[in-house]
Amino acid sequence: MKEKILLIKSAGKEGNFTMAPNRTVKPLESMSERTKRVLQLIPLGTERKITTKEIADILHVDRRIVFEEIERLVMDYAFPIVATRTGDNVGNYIPTTEAELNEGLEAFTRQIIQNLRRKEKLQNIDLNHVKERLDMVAREVESHD
Fold it and tell me: What's the Cα-to-Cα distance from 128 to each of 111, 119, 138, 140, rounded to whole Å?
């Protein structure tokens, strides 16, 4: 099912908008310079995507900072930034068509599923035997040195 974000002006709050369901969009004037610079580097459409590493290199910041800024752009300012992580044309972009949005959402959904599988695996690991398994690996490494 497709869910569209509707921007509706908030009553009594000049410059603020509301995203369904009940999520306020911050006014663009409140955006930091670094956030603006990240946004300016993200292309419209899928023809020319940009990786998080490329953005980090251009801005001379850590990749984690770029991830945080992209999260802020999506969650606080309602910019539909998505990314593809497999294939030849990987990177971040702002979709201009439903097809481009769906491509990004499919990649995001795959990432969520992968993270849920990892979460399930972590929940089922027997913590009582981790130390002895680490010791076994250490002995194995030592025997090959």
Answer: 29, 18, 17, 20
